[in-house]
Amino acid sequence: MPASELATQVGLFSIVTMWFALVLRARPALRQPHQRGLWLTVLAAAVAITLFQPEVVGRLTHAGMELHTVALTRNLIGVLSAGLVLLFMVDSTRVRRLRLTVAAGLTTVMGALVALDLLQTDHPRETVTSVQGPADPAFSYWLILIVAHLAGDAVALVVCWSYSLRTEDRDLVWSLRLFAAGSVLALVFWCGYLWHLYGGTSAMLPYLSLIIGVHGCIRAASLLVPTATAFVRSWSALRVTWRLWPLWRDLVLAVPQVALSSPQRTRLQEVLRPRSPLALQAHRQTIETYDALLDLQRFVQPGAYEQARRHARRAGAPDHRLAAAALAGTLGQARRAKLAGAPPSVPRPLPGVEHGSPATLLGIARMWPSMTDALPWHDEPVDAVAPTHRE
Prior knowledge:
Helices cover about 70% and strands about 0% of the residues. It has about 400 residues and is an all-alpha fold.
């Protein structure tokens, strides 16, 4: 695939990703001061990168906007993005004088670019023909432009990486490190752009476009870290709720006093119409399953665990699941004993469930459909009850 075509596809993907991240994170980010600066920084970068794409520039010029106007707008918003990066970095220091210094410097640089553009006399605007070039080819103009970007990205790289080594907040660590990685690509881009303007050829532009496109994707990723973390947590909670549901339902129906609310009719309803946030529901079902398990230990029959283990081995259960299968069979027998009205006895602790590990309970739940009726109740022979498969 040619570099120009790849750059176009990556550029389009980066624009879509950045705007998606901005829309998705707008409400929570703007409500939290420590995320607001990052959101505004990515917003300015998204606008600048959007105006850097040849297809976007072509559409704007076709609509009647001058190429020079597009380039100047892109340059000013790019410098604004670099300045916002610096403000985002120094904001954590809580030093008002430093923030004012950066704000004053940003205003001065943007003003200087506008002034140089207005004062251009030796090169008319019509000579600005490169859709990705600066608005003013004068040395002083693009030198100020590039130095502003290099300064902002260099500071962002150092500060973000330094802070990421000192915080224990995993979301913040990933956000800072992704932002630092984006700053590295931005530094590479602006160094290459400087080379292109100083004496390079237009053949470099597709590769520079590719770099700035990947930079945009990484900027978007740094903004989406909290959303990604929340999604992973929700997915994990959904997985726990789904896998634990048959075991939890059967145990809490036998020991209803441990449950805050009775199970819904189907597992699908429990997942699609949860009565509490998924994370809370998964946590609640784990605790209630363990509490019911503790109660049912009063109905465990002597030798039940060993019988269930032998039954599981004969049924072909893999060795690494024998313990979970034995626990599932033992609990199934104890549950039926309680439902049949058997008198409780001294609790017989089951091996491996002292702390109610979610992994242990999920292992039991995995073997529950095939082992819940594996052991007989009363005086039936052990092999009289065939294993049943229940959803």
